[in-house]
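Two entries, shown back to back:
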Amino acid sequence: MQRTSPTSTTYIPTGKQKNASQNAVDLLRQMAIPQIQINPVSEAVTDNAGGEVAIFINYLEASREEMEGLRTPDVKKVEYLEFPTDPRFRGAQRVINIIVQEYAYGGYTKLTTNENFLVGFSSRNNIFSKFSYKKMTYDLYVGANNWNNHHIGNNVKGIYSLKDADGKDYQLIRTENP
């Protein structure tokens, strides 16, 4: 569902979109918001002209870890704003504000593991835990990355044709292996 006003566009994610998503960027991808593009490799969120889009969760700037640890079933709505006047957005020109359920107490722990073996073995393991008690919210993030690729690098071979002191031609071959 979508609602548009002069200052923002509000999207309500469906249950299927929430359940199919693993994190905040994945939810944005599932929602297919027409004003933004998501790079499939770097997961950078930009507007259609390639400009930066700041991501906030409940009007607070979201870190990469918070976006990764977001519990998608808690998302109520997603707002897209251009040139917002609210000072909580810190002067950002384009903003995605994800509104999530806030709890008086309780929390969750989320463990994610990503493995990639197509371009060399890599893995990313994350633990994100969020706990609320009255007016305090505590976040804990632990992450580990491993990347092993023996097929990366470069090899440079330069062949130089020169003349020696007697005017005779000779070749100098230089090979670089970093």
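entry 2 starts here
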Amino acid sequence: QEFLKDAKTVDEALRVNQELANIEAQIEQIKGRMNYLTDRSAFSTITITLEPEFPILTPTPSPTPKPTATPVPWKPADTFNDAKGTVTVVYQGIANFLIWLVVVILPIVLPPALILWAMWKLLTRKPKGARSDQ
């Protein structure tokens, strides 16, 4: 109605009225289309298929296995040399023990042992003039 008041001539009023009628028709057409789509979507079925996105795995090389060691054959000469070395070490240990015995133990034990032996000899000695009655 405001547009009609602004019109100066009847021709302008008719054009405004015609334009308003066209716009109202477009609005009604759009509303009808909206109602149609609303009704259609109410009875529609939507099917969705979801598939997970798997990560792309880059192949990693497997470690190269270590080769098994070749078994060492029996070597009697090596066994003999090992035994000879062990006997040498044992004899060296015995010699070391005897050296320690002479250097450390005998100076500590020998003087008291000699004193005790001398006292025992003096106490068990027979007088020179005594005879045995046999």
